[in-house]
Design a protein that fits this description.
The protein is mostly helical and 106 residues long. It has one domain (2-104). Helices cover 81% and strands 0% of the residues. It contains four helices and no strands. The protein has helices at 2-24, 31-51, 57-79, 86-104. Helix 1 packs across helix 3. The longest helix is centred in the first third of the chain and has 23 residues, at 2-24. It is flat, with a radius of gyration of 15 Å. The relative contact order is 0.15.
Amino acid sequence: MAVAWGVLIVSGCLETLWATALEASRNFHRLGPSLLFLAALACSMAGLSYAVSHIPLGTAYAVWVGIGAVGTAVYGMAALGEPATVARLLCLLLIVAGVVGLKLIP
């Protein structure tokens, strides 16, 4: 079970990678980011597929999406100059709290 959780966390991080690579691909007009997008997407989906064979689907999917959403939003704020308002940061903390809650509550 611990391996499945580790794979799920890595897969969530890969979701952040493919989302940022998608933006960097400029609508698939840049080869490097486009290839990175495809590779990260495939690995992320493969990891999610493995995880759902050991973790309940709803929990695994919510954790995967939560990691990807928070990671992508943080990347946008840190690297792309998106606003990092208190309200946005609090909303991200709510997502993290939900993900942690899904992990801790049986």
